């Protein structure tokens, strides 16, 4: 009987031997030539070199099951490469840290424990999400790579944009297509903004700004991606001063990621199985005038045109007809002593440098701007339909120049102040046409009366002549 079970035992032993390991323990460090592979087989962690001719080696995570060039989503020692790969070793230390060291004992990279007490026998595991997690024996997460991203955001990653209005998370692009060291472009929240908004920075200067985020916790409905047949879910999570951004994708969807590339573009990419390549679903910036404040004050980038271009707000005219980047000026100067009116412009990416007034209705937001002569514009958003779990309204006001605005098919209404009421072109045309028509009708009536009188005189003369001849 025992002989019957030998083949089964042998197969079980062989399968366990061939199975890729997803865990790192104190007794089993990771060295060059070996990898950790997630249980699903989707991701791998190990040592790599961006090019075959490159003598710099890095510890990173990449898609394991995809063909073609390696797509790296996380790098540990991006600014401190290993020159001799055979000397690199990743270990779990006795004090519950991950340490990447070389043969000389020099620490190339290490994690910082966020727990007060040291935990013995901690281990690290590469999850199916691509998250590399250091865990204590009781399952508590001590450290995770999702909290320390490089240039890529993966589904289910909770990106901590800010904590108590302070910038925490930051994506930093590669320096070049084959150089994972920190580049000049980064993406993070704006520390000077009263409401979270993401900005792509070129070193320390804003390069491109996204739409203003909702400070309340909001869970958006799914967005169908016709390119892939997937459904994208987005969420803004505000909990105890921690502001997270997260996205997930429907089941059985192709691999999806958001990457800040070395040229400064944030790209939303999905894997195409037919072409065995990454397909671009969307990117930002999308046009030249989408760069930060490129159109100048009181102007906006019009995305609704075939070729997006800078446009002046209604009631404004270009400062320089040759250079649109200088912005626009008012056709009529705005004075506090003169009456003013607000003009609505729909579908807008609202300008930068605003004040956020909380717990206001639309009428209260309007009154807040109307009573302040320095208020040049306001915008109001009702977040209740989006599933806001705190303040369901958002009132933004501007007290100076309107900079870095945009107009597209999706956006919100921007109400900006003009010195006089806008003239409706239809009403203006009617006012011009009506007097002309009335004048012509009057001339026609006069002509008809004159003709009638002339005809009457002619008939009377004819009758008199007949009587005299008769």
UniProtKB/TrEMBL annotation:
The listed locations are: Membrane
Report the EC code(s) recorded for this entry. 2.7.11.1
Extract the GO molecular function terms from the UniProt entry.
protein serine/threonine kinase activity
The Apple domain is annotated at: 336-419
The GO cellular component terms are: membrane
Give the record's keywords alphabetically: Disulfide bond, Membrane, Receptor, Signal, Transmembrane, Transmembrane helix
Q: Where in this chain does the record put each Bulb-type lectin domain?
A: 21-147
The membrane topology term of the UniProt record is: Single-pass type I membrane protein
- Output the InterPro entries linked to this UniProt entry: Bulb-type_lectin_dom, Bulb-type_lectin_dom_sf, Pan_app, S_locus_glycoprot_dom, SLSG/EP1
SUPFAM superfamilies linked to this entry: alpha-D-mannose-specific plant lectins
Show the catalytic activity: L-threonyl-[protein] + ATP = O-phospho-L-threonyl-[protein] + ADP + H(+); L-seryl-[protein] + ATP = O-phospho-L-seryl-[protein] + ADP + H(+)
Q: Would I find Transmembrane among this entry's keywords?
A: yes
UniProt signal peptide: 1-20
Q: Which GO terms describe its biological process?
A: recognition of pollen; response to other organism
Q: What is its main location?
A: membrane
Q: Does the keyword Repeat apply?
A: no
Positions of transmembrane segments? 432-452
Q: What does this protein do?
A: Involved in sporophytic self-incompatibility system (the inability of flowering plants to achieve self-fertilization).
Q: What is this protein called?
A: non-specific serine/threonine protein kinase
